[in-house]
Design brief:
The complex is a heterodimer of chains A (182) and B (214). With 182 residues, chain A is mainly α. Chain A folds into two domains: 1-115, Rna Polymerase Sigma Factor, Chain: A, CATH 1.10.1740; 117-182, Winged helix-like DNA-binding domain superfamily/Winged helix DNA-binding domain (Arc Repressor Mutant, subunit A). Helix content of chain A is 74%, strand content 0%. Chain A contains nine helices and no strands. Chain A has helices at residues 6-14, 19-40, 43-61, 70-95, 97-100, 119-130, 133-144, 149-156, 160-181. The longest helix of chain A is centred in the middle third of the chain and has 26 residues, at 70-95. Chain B folds into two domains: 10-55, no CATH class; 85-213, no CATH class. Chain B has helices spanning 13-17, 23-35, 37-55, 65-81, 86-110, 118-129, 134-145, 153-164, 167-176, 189-194, 198-213. Chain B starts with 12 loop residues before the first helix and ends with a helix. The relative contact order of chain B is 0.10. Classes of the chains: A mainly alpha (182), B mainly alpha (214). Chains A and B meet through helix 2, helix 3, helix 4, helix 5 and helix 6 of A and helix 3, helix 4, helix 5, helix 6 and helix 10 of B.
Chain lengths: 182, 214
Amino acid sequence: MTGSSDLELVELFQKGNETCFNELVRRYQEKIYWVARRFVNDHDQADDIVQEVFIKVYSALKDFRAESGVYTWLYRITVNVALNALRKQRIRDFVRIDEFFDTAGDEHEQPDSIVEKDEQQKLIEEAIAKLPEKQKAVFILRYYEELSYEEISAILKTSIGGLKANYFHAAKKIGEYVHRAS
Amino acid sequence: MFIVQAEHVKYDLLDYAANRLSIQEHDRVEEHLQNCLTCQNHYRELLSTENILKESHEHPPSPVYFTTILPRVRERLEQRRRPVRAYAEALTKVLLPLSVSAFLVLLVLRVPIDFSSESNQTDALQRVMKDLSADEMVQAVEGEYAGSSFTTYQDLSIAGVEEHLQGDRFLKAAVSKQIENEEIAEMDLEGMISDLSSDQVDQVLSKISERNAL
């Protein structure tokens, strides 16, 4: 099973071999976690995204048609779920749920118990958080995931020229933010 | 005589600084940099950014964390398979997101919030929300729309809220409704926002943007 390609795993799953899904989770969980965490800067929210991504993957796997690579497809789902999580956060910020309900609570304000961030890292995360959605996605996929522009183009459905421009502007903004703040 | 300026390489400079270009691309960028002040300036900036990014250190979660993902995903998948009462399922999947969307749009469109004043904003929202549990919102929306001809979220959010709902009537109905279904008693607005679909999230955000632009 561990020697099988992604596509072989999907095909076996589609034929009823449930355990192939487990192998896909094991294979991609770390990558998906890091993409998610770089989008939301928070371990718990990243964990929620990882869970949601794999639930969606499980539901959609039987219909996967290999029009794109499995990992391209997984990245696309992850980016969409992460962006949706950020948009929901904007709604929460608008209605200021935290002020009225205990549930969403203080966890965003508390120091992350799992991850202690140094100052420089914190500035970078703040800078990335301020980027427009597209630039953020391109920067995370290109700089951290080291995907090629062709792969990112397949994930985000954007031209390579557009991606390069997004990457350049994202890097410039991050640099400017960090230098201004430090 | 024209001197043709070679195409600028600024979009490749971070990759160049991070040493992620092919040999041919690397040479092309290097050659261009020797003669282009604009790109040299960009490069200096991006090299500095690359150094900062390279030196920064992300702290990973405990390795144990990654062993917990699969069991929890499996558990959630298993939960989804368990039979639930049709009413509760419909409520969760359809009415709940619908309700919170309508409620949020109502907030955006109807609640007289003065954004110039922080305290006014807080007061207005508190008036709306302090007595209103999520369950009551669900019940109210369900009741409000039970006999209506509105069938889609779009109808509800725009036509429904704008033309057919009076804000006070809606809120009074919400508060006066009794919680009839214990299964949703624990749900709250946070949970309902989490259940919104992408389209619903975009609709609400678009209304928020419109509201903020006023």
